[in-house]
Amino acid sequence: MFRVCKFAVKTGGPGQMSVRHYDIPAHLTKIADEPNPSFFRMVEYFYHHAVRVVEPSLIEYLNKHTHMSEKKRLQRVAGILKVMGSCNSCIQMEFPLQRKGGDYDIIQAYRVQHSVHRLPCKGGIRFSDEVNLDEVKALASLMTFKCACSSIPFGGSKGGVAINPKKFTVAELQRITRRYTLELAKKNYIGAGIDVPAPDFNTSGREMSWVVDTYIKTLGYQDLNAAACVTGKPINGGGIHGRVEATGRGVFMTINYFLHDDYFMKLVEMTPGFKGKTAIVQGFGNVGSFAGVYLHQAGVKIIGVCEFEANIANQDGINPNDLIKYMASNKRSAKGFPGGQEVGEDLLYQKCDILVVAAKEKVIRADNAGKIQAKMIAEGANGPTVPSAHTILLKKNILVIPDLLCNAGGVTVSYFEFLKNLNHVSFGKLSIKFWRDSNTALLDSVEKSLKNANVEAKVSPTKEFASMMSGASEKHIVGTGLEFSMTNACSNVAAAAKTHNLNIDLRTAAYITSIEKIFVTYDEHGLAF
Ligand SMILES: NC(=O)C1=CN([C@@H]2O[C@H](COP(=O)(O)OP(=O)(O)OC[C@H]3O[C@@H](n4cnc5c(N)ncnc54)[C@H](O)[C@@H]3O)[C@@H](O)[C@H]2O)C=CC1
Ligand SMILES: O=C(O)CCC(=O)C(=O)O
């Protein structure tokens, strides 16, 4: 759809020729070197950095509007890029919570809708005492670019509640979640066609159950599609098989893709394939633990896990399944895990092939990026690398699979759950009997045909065919759908990196693929009334 414009775009009136260069907005120019930039400014910076590369081809794309003057076309490109980079709306709320002991706390919470070019908006809810408006805006904008990068037809949003859940009882957490949902509903910030939350840092199916229940019992009680107001729900409450592991599984799929891509492996001087590879995982929660499980299954040795309360190392390999069980029985702490030795924070900088960062934002900065010895970094977390560190990692020739591509598995399977809720039936359910009967009839038919040709044989299905005779199960459809989507997104990003001569800069390439798609939507739909 987009051709790469190899030449600087010439502008100006007849006879005047001036060369255009896209300027990164003035308020962002220092972000490239800031040791600890604002998270939202960071995402803005990466966006504008990619716009610098892709703007000429966007201008050329609009040449199809032959009815417009060149000036109007340039204004339209600039307008779309401004809208795409800005946050549509935010709500900030404060509400009281009566604590177990009788005292009152005021809880601060947020929801940000970054882009409404497609509806509903989509993005998780985070519980953390570090939550603030800047963080939620950054996470919402990442959702916009993430959904577009994987061709998931949602706008981008995110929510956050500024609490440390470890300091609240389960009953208190339930009251906070329900009140937060009620505030979202009152302000029209939740609903199947409006904005659909999901789990994120420190939230899971449990909180999503409280969200859907509160919504259905209040504003959504007459809405047939009310269950689609949130995803990441437990199966019994309308969830889908595979959402819990989806983000970590998607992280694994992106590693799998690039580890088998000869072009990129050659650039970073790695031998293709999983054989003999080692990995270190930072953050062993939902995303990191499942990424670890799939890497382990593929034969990668997990030689380190960096966690909040303990860093665990084992050169012979940590079994991620054992660590998951251990942490579940040890108040989510890795401390005391018998399958490895507790070591210092320097574990993050030890030699390994793959570093999975799956904890939180801004963990790779200019002051520590130089120490990283991994050859490949998979950004399971949102925003783990600040711009100054991004440049250092490129110079060190480390292949970084950027967040908006790497951790898109979660929202992809959330999309499948959303569709399941709108369909009011699970995938494959209606056709199970038909496929079983029809495949049984096929086997009978082959057996009868052989008999008619005087060949006595019992035709029975192979083990593989037997497992597929009833058609695809929901689990199968989710797994293959996720793989198709992640592989497609990786191949689009890889192609953009090559087309725009970006070498190993997959982050800029990923933003470019997103910008191009969102640009077309704005161009087709219009951007202002
Ligand atoms: N849950 C999901 O589906 C998705 C999550 N993400 C992102 O992945 C990251 C992790 O999210 P989840 O796994 O859902 O959260 P989680 O709450 O399940 O796990 C986070 C883990 O990181 C650990 N951790 C926190 N700070 C740490 C630090 N400084 N060093 C080492 N470990 C630390 C925690 O102890 C916890 O075990 C976040 O950035 C989130 O936004 C991205 C896409 C989807
Ligand atoms: O599953 C979803 O809808 C969103 C997950 C999320 O918050 C994220 O990808 O950062």
Tell me what the structure shows.
The chain is globular. Mean pLDDT is 95; it is low at 6-18. The chain has helices at 39-61, 70-85, 133-149, 170-186, 205-217, 243-259, 262-267, 286-297, 320-328, 366-369, 387-395, 403-406, 409-423, 432-452, 463-468, 474-499, 506-525; strands spanning 10-11, 18-19, 89-98, 104-115, 121-122, 125-127, 155-161, 195-196, 278-282, 301-306, 311-313, 341-343, 354-357, 376-379, 399-401. It is of the alpha/beta class. A 7-stranded mixed beta sheet has the order 12-11-10-9-13-14-15. Strands 3, 4, 5, 6, 7 and 8 form a 6-stranded mixed beta sheet that branches. It is built from 17 helices and 15 strands. Helix 8 links the parallel strand 9 and strand 10. Helix 1 (39-61) runs parallel beside helix 3 (133-149), helix 2 packs across helix 17 (506-525) and helix 16 (474-499) packs across helix 17 (506-525). Among the domains are: 10-86 and 518-525, no CATH class; 89-239, Leucine Dehydrogenase, chain A, domain 1 (Rossmann fold). Bound molecules: 1,4-dihydronicotinamide adenine dinucleotide and 2-oxoglutaric acid. Residues 122-124, 146, 198, 200, 231-232, 382, 407, 410-411, 414 line the site of 2-oxoglutaric acid.
What topology does this entry show?
Blueprint: E1 10-11, E2 18-19, H1 39-61, H2 70-85, E3 89-98, E4 104-115, E5 121-122, E6 125-127, H3 133-149, E7 155-161, H4 170-186, E8 195-196, H5 205-217, H6 243-259, H7 262-267, E9 278-282, H8 286-297, E10 301-306, E11 311-313, H9 320-328, E12 341-343, E13 354-357, H10 366-369, E14 376-379, H11 387-395, E15 399-401, H12 403-406, H13 409-423, H14 432-452, H15 463-468, H16 474-499, H17 506-525
Parallel strand pairs: 5-7, 5-8, 6-7, 9-10, 9-13, 13-14, 14-15
Antiparallel strand pairs: 1-2, 3-4, 4-7, 10-11, 11-12
